[in-house]
């Protein structure tokens, strides 16, 4: 039986990849600082993604390593992100595995907008974006087999640390309004996690070069209205109030709250159209998995505890 290791299996995309891999017959293991034993069809291995020996041990015999781990609460990105990816690279080389990285649009600055291609220039204006660029450089030059699939903002079951669950419709709370961060009429790219995970799996099942990189279009909201309208339809409330995100207040508070500082850094992604060109992906797969807006939003709200039981 083929084996896969998930780093970050308790997160949204890590959990989605674990489900897809299990469905394809993989034996799935996950590294966690506290868990051990078998739970949810996953063999949990106690260890830390920051510890190279732990990752090397957990990856023995694996064909796939999903690197979906991030420092919690956006803390210490500059100190933790690159050592963790280097640990995955070393483990993948030792096991002969392919690293799968869920990529982001943080790599790009406004000079690459509005349509992002795999070959678009990467001139990020943020600290986090510069780290993502360096992370991908390590992967490209590290000597391991790699698959990077870049996508827009995550939403879906299990995706808690994102704009949808933290800002637009806060998880585990009654929905009395929608808070939307985007400028009026500006398009935004969303990635529904089950669709993204299935896309990654389909790519893994095809012949790939040692270093492969694709863009996932996902749910392209051409003017910012489609996500809002879908939430209203699912909730059965077409008059649900929409408020604009308080960017000024966030800026004033950001020196004291790390998460608000990170959100403020990402504001530029909400001010202009940011769309991913999936031409290469479509050529490789012949299509892109796509759940309709209402079904995707309904599943997200249900998992986030926003729908009445």
UniProtKB/TrEMBL annotation:
GO terms for cellular component: cytoplasm. InterPro entries: Epimerase_deHydtase (IPR001509), NAD(P)-bd_dom_sf (IPR036291), NAD(P)-dependent_oxidoreduct (IPR051783). It comes from the Bacteria. Residues 4-207 form the NAD-dependent epimerase/dehydratase domain. Signal peptide: none annotated. One of its GO terms (molecular function) is aldehyde dehydrogenase (NAD+) activity. Pfam families: Epimerase. This is Nucleoside-diphosphate-sugar epimerase.
